[in-house]
Amino acid sequence: MAMDEVYSATTAPNPKSSCFVVPTDHLDKTRFILKVFQVLLSCVAFSLEEAINSCYSCTPLYFFEFVSCTAFLFTLLLVILLSTTLHKKVTITCWPTVDFCYTGGIALLLFISSIVFASSNGGSSLETSAVVFGFLAMLAFIADFALFWKNLGLPFRNGGKAPSNPGGAVQVEAPAEKEKLTTEANGAD
User: Fold this and answer.
1) Where is this region: Disordered (predicted)?
2) Residue 49 belongs to some domain of the structure
């Protein structure tokens, strides 16, 4: 029996070594997929809006442009942060509150900007398509917001921290035992 046979049967790859580690404490697989759809739909809405050459009333177009671009870029950033270990390097400790408020706020802004742009545009197929994708992105944000609320409740109730994992391992450290070990290591009795 070779050494490779002994170690290959019991050694497992480290699951934390991959780039994306979903599910995390802040993002489960379903919400990760929803957030990817949010990024894609808001990117398409923004791209379609950018392809419009002339506008009937430019202020609603610019507002829609700002909201769809913000939704695309900031949601992409949020997905990258929450689905990797990068969120640990940022000094934000209330990720659930940030995620909850951001998702609800962007859903509201997409709703308002899509309605305003739909009511005041030239009626071209590009404008109509941009509005449709704006509403679809808004629906993805609403679904994510509702799923967050259903599964985790309001993040404000537990101080914005991630909910505790009742099935996870509990680490309890006995202070008296730690003190005893420290004094013995230093040579004091």
Assistant:
1) 161-189
2) yes
Residue 20 gets which letter from DSSP? -
Q: Which two tokens stand for residue 42?
A: 């808001």
Q: Which range has the worst mean pLDDT, 30-34, 40-44, 137-141?
A: 30-34
Burial of 111 (0-12, 13-18, 19+ CB in 10 A): middle
**Encoding tokens for residue 189?**
């009795």
> How many structural domains compose the chain?
1
Preceding peptide of 23 cis, ω within 30°: yes
Residue 106 phi, psi dihedral angles, 5° rounding:
-70, -35
Classify residue 126: in a domain, yes or no. yes
Pair of tokens at residue 133: 């994708």
Domain span at residue 131 reads 23-154
CATH number at residue 118: 1.20.120
Task: Give the least confident one: 110-114, 127-131, 182-186.
Answer: 182-186
pTM confidence score: 0.72
CB 112 within 8 A of CB 168: no
CB 122 within 8 A of CB 54: yes
Q: How far apart are alpha carbons 68 and 47 in whole angstroms?
A: 9
